[in-house]
Amino acid sequence: MDNVQKFMAAFRGFDGAHGQTVITGGRVNGKSEAKTRIIREPITAEKIQEHFDGGKGIGSIPINANNQCSFGCIDIDTYPLDHADLVGKCRQLDIPGIVCRSKSGGAHIYFFIDGEIPAADMRDKLSEIAAVLGQGNAEIFPKQEKLLVERGDVGNAINLPYHDVERTLRPAFTNKGKEATLQQFLAMVEKSRKTPSEFMSIQVSGGSEILVEAPPCLECHVRNGVGQGGRNCVAFNLATYFKKQNPKQWKQDIESANHSYFKPPLPASELVTIQDQIEKKDYFYQCTEPQLAMHCNKNLCRQRKYGIGNSARSVEITGLTVVKSEPRIWFVDVAGARLELTTEQLQMPTQFQRACMEQLNFMPPKLKEDTWQTVVNVALTEVVEIEVPVELTNKGQFMELLENFCTGRVQAQSWEELDLNKPYTEEGRTYFKMAALINFLKAQNFLTYTKGQVQERIKELNDGEASHQVKNYNNSKAEKKTVRVWSVPEFKEPIDIPGINVGGEEIPF
Fold it and tell me: Could you tell me if 442 and 367 lie in one domain?
């Protein structure tokens, strides 16, 4: 098996689609601006070779149509990033991930399975690993636990390493922190593969016996020890947890934790100040504080008795994709589940709530209009577009119907027959009355376009010209008749379609 085939096998994912990403501009927060789209075609050896040659970059969608995975990835967008240090942390914790530089200079940590595991299990384990590595804000691929394949959903793609392999800026790193060749990477893949049971048995979190059902971020700090620079934040949130867990002795618990896990312990005066604050009211965890966010594992925290629960104070939407049909279909991840939305449902917070209730049996908190607008705009900055066949767009449907109208079995044989609502073809152009075309579209239940929009589509076919004229011809009474007609370039191939009634006359198209 050559390198192309081995590479394809390593990143086997969704069979019917793949991702393409194009760098579109400068850098924002250290990350290159890029536009990602989904192409509804399988990854082929030719596409991988083009990827290696420096052509179009390829992204693989880890989750397949059966919601299973053979690989997964932690996508770290931290800048600057010491890749060798990250490799060292993985080795220290016995994490079988392969660290690669991403296109933006961050890191992708890939995990490979001998067989397949459910996407939900992959996400749970990778979220746990990311939290322990201090990368709780990293994106997890697959982004979805379950795809809505029957509705056109295909998930999100992760950009693959070794683009432009001879001069690649996306290499893997060996255990010694050195850049690996493609051949070395493929050998590392085979060595790192885990069976599903081995992968799910990876132990990276232990916590402490005193932290019963606590948020995972606090477990990480207790296990690793709390150094200077974040002690007050961690102490405040530990005290918040202890008060929830044991209201009668929480003060003694935070004092014990301060001496056992803080290096060095907080001064007594600072700890007393925190205790006085916590005693006055019931606080919620400060989840957005960097000291907690770096070890965040939201899904696990929601399951903990003293975690954030399902009463989150804000709603987080991720993995936004749009099917470029008309009308648009949107898919988004909410609390680990996949949600299908119309444009109106994505735009309006109340409509979004209703969609969550109907599809997920869950009602998120309603956000204010301006806050919701910010949430959606943030998601739209990284929206992934799913390409669709042209016939699924309004323009594509119109063009198909126009061709049907112009090439039906019964055609006008002379200019006079335009009065019978038949199209007439002469010298490479097809002529017709606008009313005949409009009636045809209505008969086909195509009501999307106004008359003005129909005219604009016709102008596009004529290089922007209106392409209508006044035609004089002799009618049956040998009198001159003036008719306004429109025209388009002749469609070469006739198309048979069922008979319809246009303008009051049965025309067997």
Answer: no
